[in-house]
Amino acid sequence: MLEIRNLHAEIDGKKILNGLTLSVPAGEVAAIMGPNGSGKSTLSYIVAGRSDYTVTAGEVLLNGEDILKLPPHERAARGLFLAFQYPVEIPGVTTHTFLRTAMNAQRKTRGEEELKTADFIKIMRAAADKLSISQEMLRRPLNVGFSGGEKKRLEVLQMTLLEPRFGILDETDSGLDIDALRVVSDGVNALRSKERGFLVITHYQRLLDYIKPDSVHVMSNGRIIKSGGPDLALELEKHGYRDIVANAA
Question: For the segment 165-199, what is each residue's pLDDT rounded down to a tens digit?
């Protein structure tokens, strides 16, 4: 599904990733945890195709294809989705219009017919209701004036409509209260399948109480320094990163 091999990257001459290797099979959820500044969000940006980072070595394979040379929209067309830690606001573009445009752009790239307005509205409303997203929210400019929880629910709504093959959640739990966390997690869990994989980036065990990972990986200084099962996250919650980082140094 997603395989990252010996990935090195930098920004403005500063090294961020230092030989990171990670494999996430189809049907599995992998969690990445680590101290601030370890490169977790950078990893998500590079996989998604953010242009201000320079990859100096390594590969990122999605279903066997190296996607590093593809522009972001082609990576998305291949089935990659990134849920941002801080979703952007787009004044002047309604949420409804944004979602329909994104969904039909994906369908067109895949050689599928665009959805008619009535069909799209039916699909969108059904998905929105499950995420406690009101019709009034869908008529407002994308993310403008929305709370943190509303923005994150909209990210999951986008993912639900686009049906990606692989989803990356970059600290989706950031800024969420317990009710919003539960709604967002339920939305992600509803998308879990044998054909779809996820990479969940988080600082806290609380998200992993709802989105149960198959594997947990500790990241420090731009590389994976320890991997294990779900119990590893509980160990980190109890003892922190200091001993693991020190042992890997």
Answer: 999 999 888 878 888 888 889 989 999 999 999 99
Edge-to-edge strands of the sheet including 215-220? 80-83, 166-170, 197-201, 29-33, 215-220, 223-228
Classify the C-alpha dihedral 190-212-28-152 as positive or negative: positive
CA 188 to chain centre: 10
Domain at 103, CATH number: 3.40.50.300
- For residue 197, give the nearest of 176, 180, 211, 207 by alpha carbon: 211
Domain count, the chain: 1
Q: Which residues contact 153 (CB under 8 A, 6 or more apart)?
A: 131, 132, 133, 180, 183, 184, 187
Can you give the residue range of the structural domain that contains 48?
2-248
Backbone angles phi, psi at 244, to 5 degrees: -65, -45
Q: Which residues of the chain have pLDDT under 50?
A: none
Within 8 A by CB and 6+ apart from 218, the residues are 32, 33, 34, 224, 225, 226, 227, 232, 236, 241, 244
Only one residue has tokens 């042992």, namely: 247
| CA angle at 99 for the pair 95 and 179, rounded to the nearest 5° | 65
- Counting beta carbons within 10 angstroms of the beta carbon of residue 29, is it exposed (0 to 12), middle (13 to 18) or buried (19 or more)? buried
For the purposes of burial, counting CB atoms within 10 Å of the CB of 136, is it exposed (0-12), middle (13-18) or buried (19 or more)? exposed
